[in-house]
Amino acid sequence: VIRIHWNLTVIQFATEQIAEEVQELCALDEHSLHSYHPSGHIIDDSDVEELVQELLEKGYTPRVEDCSE
Amino acid sequence: LLRVTPLPLLVDLLRILGVIRRRRPRLLKSGYPGKRDLQSFNKVLTQPLDAKTFRSLQDSGYILFLYELGYQLDLFEEKQGQLRLNEEHCFDFFSSSYLQQQRVLQETFPGMVLWNELHEVPALVKLPDDEDTSLIDPWRTSSVLKARQLLTEALPSLLETPKTTEECTDWLLEHLSPQINIAPQDDSDVYPRLAFQENKKSRTPARFPEDQARLEGQFWEVLLTQSLHWMGWIESDMQGAWVLTQDFLVPRSNEEETTYPQTPSLLVQANLECLLFPSPHTMTHIYQIEKFCKPLDGDQLLRYRFDKDTFSNALQQGLSYQQCVDFLSEQSRIPIPENVLQVLKSWYNQCNQIVISKKGAILEASNKEELDQWTKEVLQGLPSVRLDDTHLFIPSHAHKQLRKKLQKRHVQNIDYDQPPSRFINVNSQLRIDVEVLKQDIFAQEFLSKIAKIVTLTPQRATYQITKETLTQAIEDGKHVEEILEFFETRAHIFPSTARLRLESLTRHIGNVYAGQAELFLTEDEESMDRLLYEGGLSVHLKRIGPAAALIVTNKRKEFESLLESFGLPNQDHPNPSNNALWEPEDT
Questions:
Q1: Distance CA B83, CA B59 (A)
Q2: Residues of A in contact with B353 (CB under 8 A)
Q3: pLDDT number for residue B587
C-alpha cells in the first residue's frame, strides 16, 4: 500500500544532539508531523516560515532549500 | 575599445538583483514591490538616492529605470506573487562578453515600457483620460518608445561634434519635433493630456508652441542627461559637452568579438576583505562574488567583505561552499589566506547543522520490501532521498515526473494543502477504527502515542484508548485539547460520550467522587431548620436541600446520640417531601 503525502517539508539535523537542543528551544514537537529519525522530522510546508524565524531568533542558521526550483 | 571598469548601471542592476535573490519581494496589488523592498533596493546602490524623494517604485526615478531594465532583460520574473530571480538568464547575461552585453542593452533600451521620461519632467502632470477622448495620449507607451527610438537613431549625427545639453535639445526640437508622438496632432495647439501643475490647485494645459521648449525640451533633456547617461552611451567631456562613448559606438561598429584570457583579478586578504581589480571579465566576476560577499565600496577597484549573513544566504540560495572556494581560488592573485578558508568553513558547517527541504512529497510504503521494490521498479531515475525503511522524500521539481510515473498505479494521495480527510470512526468506548489508506502522516504516529493497537491489516487498523495509554500520552507532553482536536478534524463522527469519556480519563471533567453516604430527611424545611440550628445538629450534617442533609460519616456516633436525645428518628423508611432537595439553580 503506497501513500503519497504532498506539500511536506523535511527538516534534518546534523546530529541528534542538535535536534534535542532545537526540540527544547523551539518547540519542534508542535510543528513535527512525523519523526522518521531522532534527527529527522517531517513538518507541514505552512509551518516552515514560523519555524525558520524561531530558529534564527535562537541563533541557528538553517539552510532552507526550496525543492520546487 | 574595451571597458574594463564596470558600468555603474550594471553594478547597480546586479545589486538590485541581489536584493531580489535574497528577499523575493512580494508584489503589491499594483504589481510593483512595496516600499520596504524599494528601500532595500536603494540602500544597495553605489550611490543611494535620498529616500525622502520617492514613495513608490513609479516615482523612484533611477530605481524604476534599473527595475524596468532588469525586467526587460528577463533577469527576474513574477512567480506566485513574488519576484524571483531568473538565475539562468542572469548567468547568461553577466557571463557574456562586453560587446554582447552592450548589444543586448541597445536592443533593450528602446523597449523599456515602464520607464517614461515624461514622468521625469518637473511639474508636468497627466490630465485625466476622460477629459477629451479624441486626443492622442502622449503618455501612451508607444509615443515615448518612438521618441526614444528616434533619439537613439539620431545620436551619431547629433553628437558628431560635442554639444551641450542646450545645443542637443535645440537640435532635437528642430530635427525630431513634431515627428514624434509627444507633440500636438491634428492642428491642435494643446499638448494632449499634458498640463503643468503650478501649485496644488491650478493646472495649466501645455500649449504648442509656447510650452514646446519647456516640455519637449525637458523631455529630450531627461533622455539625454538621465536615460542615455545612465546607459553609459554619452558622457560629458572636459568642457562639459556631451560626447558619445565607446559603449555606444563599439556595439554598432563591425568590431569583431575578441576573446580575452581569464586573468586572476581578486586579492583575498586575511582581514576578511577582498579586492576586485578591473579586467575584461569584470562584470562576470562581480556577478559571481556578489552572490556571497558583501560589497563595501570602490569605483574602479571594488572592495568586498566576507560576511556571515551574506555567505549563509548564498548557501541557502543553493550555492555550495565548494563553488565559492573554487571561484576564489581560481580568481585570486595570491593563495587564499588560511584563516579566510577556516572562517568560511565554519559558517558553512553552521549552516549545515539544520537543513530544511521545503515543498516535497513523502512516499510512504507499508514495509521496507515494498519501498525497495518501488524504488527499483517505479521510481527509477527520479531524484529522491530515502528517509527510513518506509519513507522516501521526493523534491517538488520532480513532481511532474512523479505524477507521470504514478499514473495507472493505485496510490493514495494525501495533500497537506487541504484540511485532513475524515478516516476515523470512534465509538463511545474509545475504540478507534482507521481507514489506513486515507491516514495522514501525522495520524499514524499520533494514534500510536495515545492508544494501543488492537488489529492491523493493510486496509484497516483498530486502536483502543485506555486510561493507561492516555496517562502516558499526557506524561509525554500531549495535551487533551490536542487529542480532542485530532478527533474533531479526522473522525467521521466524534460521539459526545466518547468526548466525555476522553475528558474524564484525563481528569478534564474536574473532581468527581462517588461513595457511600447516609441521608437525613425531614418532613419539611421548618423541621430541618429547627433540628439544625435549635437542636445543634448542623455540625454533624451537610445540608443538600430544604428538607435533606448528608450525615458526616466521622461524626456518626455523636450525631446518633444527640438525635436519640430528641427521640428521633421516628421513621424506618425514607419518606421525602417533594421539595426535599434544592433545584440546581438554587445551589
A1: 20
A2: 13-15, 18, 60-62
A3: 46
